[in-house]
UniProtKB/TrEMBL annotation:
GO terms for biological process: iron-sulfur cluster assembly. Residues 11-129 form the NIF system FeS cluster assembly NifU N-terminal domain. It comes from Paenisporosarcina cavernae. The lineage of its organism: Bacteria, Bacillati, Bacillota, Bacilli, Bacillales. It comes from the Bacteria. Pfam families: NifU_N. This is SUF system NifU family Fe-S cluster assembly protein. Gene3D superfamilies: 3.90.1010.10. GO terms for molecular function: iron ion binding; iron-sulfur cluster binding. Belongs to the NifU family.
């Protein structure tokens, strides 16, 4: 097996782990920012709740249904932005968007598991699946500001 095949297999494993064992699944009740978004082309749907205080994303939870890319991306996004300043969360979203569009992006930022979604950029029809949760987060924190 080549290095690229090993990497593809590792990335698939990470994506499936987040899909089968989503992190931060559920919702935040008290005073949370709520965003509902969907991807009508494939039926992905997300209900995102964010607790934003003093310029920080204190908590992030999601619920919804969709393909493995959409739901694993939501799991990864909630992990990535939790505890981060709003500006940092929005910067992560921009880096992720650039990665999805095959653009140059700031690779000095440790993306952790999010890197596993980099291959989605080769499949234009799936980019909206991967970015749905990130767009919901952007909308939520901008509403809160």
């Amino acid at each position: 097996m080549s290095i690229n095949q090993n990497l593809d297999q590792l990335y698939r494993s990470v994506i499936m782990d987040h899909y089968k064992n989503p992190r931060n699944k559920g919702s935040i009740e008290d005073g949370a920012v709520t965003v509902d978004m969907n991807n009508p082309t494939c039926g992905d749907r997300i209900h995102l709740t964010l607790s934003v205080e003093d310029g920080l994303v204190k908590e992030a939870k999601f619920d919804g249904e969709g393909c493995s890319i959409s739901m694993s991306s939501a799991s990864m996004m909630t992990q990535a932005v939790k505890g981060k300043p709003i500006e940092e969360a929005l910067n992560l979203s921009k880096i992720f968007s650039d990665m999805m569009l095959g653009k140059e992006y700031d690779d000095s930022v440790d993306l952790g598991d999010i890197e596993a979604l980099s291959g989605v950029s080769k499949f234009p029809a799936r980019i909206k699946c991967a970015t749905l949760a990130w767009k919901a987060m952007e909308k939520g924190v901008k509403e809160e500001q």
